[in-house]
Design goal:
Strand 8 and strand 9 form a beta hairpin. The protein is mainly beta. It contains 4 helices and 34 strands. The protein folds into 2 domains: 339 residues, Beta-galactosidase, Chain A, domain 5 (Distorted Sandwich), CATH 2.70.98.10; 97 residues, Immunoglobulins (Immunoglobulin-like). The protein starts with a helix and ends with a strand.
Length: 508
């Protein structure tokens, strides 16, 4: 193990084809045993060493190419790793670009043995599209990779993408990319400034014939922390990614984000005051769902704010959280280019008790959420992580159409906001639906428990539709002289709670 550790650690400092002093090419290193503990040992060792920033040596013409030129670069047919081997999965390395300039190293693992020679860049495997490449290119490394799943005669389907910093994405069948996950958030929206860690190396285990799982390990690094990650991808009706990570701080960490996720929200029916657009909405997700340790289901619709907004949902023994897209009808967006209705929901379930902490929500103003993912959520542990103490977390991600866990209650299918009777009055409409209303008696007994602070609530109305199994709650908010109000709404039948809890922060 120590020999494997030494060779693995040394691999980050050497080119893929080293030369001896006489100018002759040195023989490639011998394969070494590999397991998750191998990468954990490397991360632990590197945490005790000075941080080395990743290189930024992208050469021309790639350093100045346009986005259209970048997407025109394609891996040639037959060049994908395991593409013709009927392994069920294949891997396509991704080219570096101005947006994804940081190189990552990619290694292959087979039967518990690591090939120490990293995957080399080979220009003969790429079609450069409109870019004219007339010289022989050196080994430039890659920006990440995509994971393809065999789909019979229809060809491979892309299910996941690891590219840029510590970002990765996945989809369920027939979906398009939307929400991104992060390996780790460090000081997001913190006055001290955010630090963005990078995945600097990936170790991809070669699947056995017939396997429905692909295992990817990664090494994360930043000035403040190193980390060892293992991802097990299982595509089905949802793409499940089991994630295990171990962190090793270089400094005392008092603000980290576990299971971090980011999505785009340009405008929704809740807030269109700054938007002149033919579309009803443009957003990766409708809201943030939280299942608390006490079993309460919270629903927080999301907005593109005029000012940075931070929200904290304090909890103990969190059961789950995620960004959900609840509108699957194209008429809710009318956007044939972006297909927001086909974006995945991403639901997170901890594998163990995460103790005390909070789900942090960050809403960032944006004028171009089609590009910028301006809403971030993550679990922030209450206790800091000091130097010398490592921490392990494990959780399951569901990239899906519908999350596996759903409130056994009425849930929100629509939230709308707009001007009331006067310019300063704000009017809201919240629509609840679900099989909880299959019993007409329960729907008939539904009453709205509504509060606001600060501000005054006016004109509360409850509309019940037995045929559609829906309950609409409309109300006005008079904020007085205040610039914000925290709104809370839940449906009750007597003392019984019959809906998830709708939460929203109105801001001027």
């Amino acid at each position: 193990m120590q020999a494997a550790l030494s060779a693995l650690a040394a691999s980050f400092a050497r080119p893929s084809a080293a030369q001896d002093p006489a100018g002759k090419q040195a023989p490639p290193p011998k394969p070494s045993p590999f397991s998750r503990e191998t990468i954990v040992d490397v991360a632990r060792k590197r945490a005790k060493e000075p941080y080395r920033p990743p290189p930024s040596d992208l050469r021309e013409p790639f350093a100045s190419m346009t986005y259209d030129q970048y997407v025109g670069i394609k891996l040639k047919p037959g060049a994908a790793i395991w593409g013709g081997e009927k392994k069920g999965f294949s891997i396509e390395p991704l080219h570096r670009s101005p947006m994804f300039s940081t190189p990552v190293e990619i290694y292959l693992v087979e039967n518990g043995v690591l090939n120490q020679e990293r995957l080399s860049y080979d220009q003969s495997q790429f079609d450069y599209g409109s870019l004219k490449i007339t010289e022989k290119l050196p080994d430039m490394g890659f920006s990440g990779f995509r994971v393809l799943r065999a789909q019979g005669e229809s060809g491979p389907a892309e299910i996941a993408l690891f590219q840029g910093w510590s970002f990765f994405r996945a989809t369920a069948p027939e979906q398009v990319y939307g929400i991104r996950a992060r390996g780790l958030s460090v000081r997001t929206a913190d006055p001290r400034g955010e630090e963005i860690p990078n995945f600097i190396a990936f170790y991809i285990e070669r699947p056995a014939l017939g396997d429905n799982a692909l295992v990817v390990h990664a090494l994360l690094e930043s000035p403040s922390v190193t980390g060892a990650y293992s991802f097990t991808l299982r595509p089905s009706e949802a793409t499940i990614i089991d994630t295990e990570l171990t962190l090793f701080p270089r400094v005392d960490l008092d603000h980290i984000g576990i299971a971090s996720l980011a999505g785009a929200s340009l405008f929704t029916p809740l807030d269109r005051r700054r938007v002149d657009d033919i579309r009803p909405a443009a957003a990766d997700m409708a809201g943030l769902q939280i299942l608390t340790g006490k079993g309460e289901w919270l629903w927080r619709p999301l907005s593109n704010r005029a000012d940075l907004q931070l929200s904290s949902f304090v909890d103990n023994s969190l059961k789950g959280f995620g960004f959900l897209q609840r509108n699957r009808d194209i008429s809710g967006f009318e956007d044939l280019d972006h297909h927001w209705e086909r974006r995945p929901s991403l639901w997170i379930e901890p594998h163990s008790d995460w103790g005390e902490g909070s789900v942090q929500l960050v809403e960032i103003p944006s004028e171009s959420a089609e590009i910028n993912q301006n809403v971030v959520a993550y679990w922030r542990p209450k206790q800091p992580l000091p130097v010398g103490k490592e921490a392990t977390y494990a959780y399951r991600q569901f990239w899906c159409w519908e999350p596996p866990a759903r409130p056994p209650l009425a849930y929100v299918i629509e939230s709308r906001g707009g001007r009331g009777a006067t310019p300063k009055i704000r009017r809201f409409l919240v629509v609840f639906a679900g099989e909880a209303f299959a019993d007409p008696g329960r729907l008939a007994a539904a009453e709205a428990d509504l509060s606001a602070g600060p501000g005054t609530l006016l004109n509360k109305r409850v509309y019940k539709e037995t045929q559609n199994k829906t309950c609409r709650v409309a109300f006005d908010l008079d904020p007085g002289g205040e610039s914000y109000s925290e709104l809370r709404l839940v449906l009750k039948a007597g003392d019984e709670i019959i809906s998830e809890t709708w939460l929203y922060r109105w801001t001027l």
